[in-house]
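Notes from hallway chat w/ T.B., transcribed later so I don't forget. T.B. wanted the structure written out for a chain they're using in a teaching module, and asked if we could keep both sequence and structure tokens in one place. Agreed to drop them here.
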Amino acid sequence: MRRTLIEETVLMASVAKWIVLATIAGAAVGVATAVFLHLLSMAVNATGRYPYAFLFLPAAFFLSSLLIRYLAPDAEGHGTEKVIEAVHKSNGNIPLAVVPVKLLATIITLAFGGSAGKEGPCAQIGAGICSWMSRIMKFNEDDRKKLVICGISAGFAAVFGTPIAGAIFGVEVLFVGSILYDVLLPSFIAGITSYQIASWMGIPYLRIPMVIMPDVNQLMMLKIIASVFAFGILSRLLILGLKIGHRCSSAIRIWKPGKALIGGFTMVLLALLFGRTWLGLGIESIDSALGGAIASWYTPLLKILFTSVTLSLGGSGGIVTPIFFIGATGGSALAALLRFDPVALSAVGFVSLLAGAANTPIAASIMAVELFGPSIGPYAAVACVVSFIVSGHRSVYPSQILAVKKSPSLATEIGRDMASVRTMYLKKWWTRLWRSGKGRKHQS
């Protein structure tokens, strides 16, 4: 009896501790995220008055790269990836200087038309603040990692206005195929608190009319699954595009700010050749696709190209907003081919591409319900899981750790980061696939 009482007391004390810490962390990240989003909006509106502001992209990339190289090298890249790397390789230690540098570099990049997202900086800002808090309070490594994960969740929740999906994203994105249940409660609290604070500070969120889907039926589900294979291919193309961009950047062995000038001039050339649709966040294109407009088949492909150049050659920002652009416009273009409701397929593409490219099917499924309403839930859940499988052992976040094989018929080493995962096909894979399924059925 006494042992039970002690156990219950310890557990309740732990719950109380993390409720307090997660609330403080969520409030701090909510304020920082709101400040960043307001500054970003002001900068984008200011440059948006001038149609040819993108001609200053070389200077913008140069300044962004200069700030990162000499003030906070850890602010390089697309934000969330650096946080995942910090959790796995340095126990969640993130220099506080990352926060203002990442904020400023991203605003400069996006204001002049760099093709990137705004969630990566928010996740990195949130994680940086929480890492600093953990050092002030002299936390051990485990508690510091937990608080940093709360920062990821809080940043994601506040930037998109999806508190539940944001909380799940933080605990799902670190490992492919595994969720950190011990951080689930503080992540929920941090995400909800951050969202409430950002809303209170006047952050406007994407308000999409509910997508009305028919009752679940086999024909509709088969059409959704057929479309998801296309989204899986788009996920692979995005990951491949980022990888090729990184390799090209590594092959240019010059001073990084000088390399950023090359990236800026490349972006100007692309914009002059193809148009300005693919510059910046691309919110107008996402809204248009979700509103029922049919996108051209090449729209998502060009977004991959613009984003790869931006993130590989000097630009700063996130990757999730481009994922939304690619998924929504890809679904819109595919709808005409499948004779499907373009609004519904754009919404499915919006979330399923996130599930495949970032390996976060649960967070993406919940986001679908938070953004588009409950009737899309069953279809989005199936689409996200299929996209997660079809995308293979790849990720836009190379530092993710593989925790589960996506098929028993593939020889894949568990426990490695996604950048070093190698996949081999086993002999007679069809027999092995059948036997593994039969074995699971027999065990159940």
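Follow-up for T.B.: Residues 45 and 408 are 51 Å apart (CA to CA). Might be a good example for the class.
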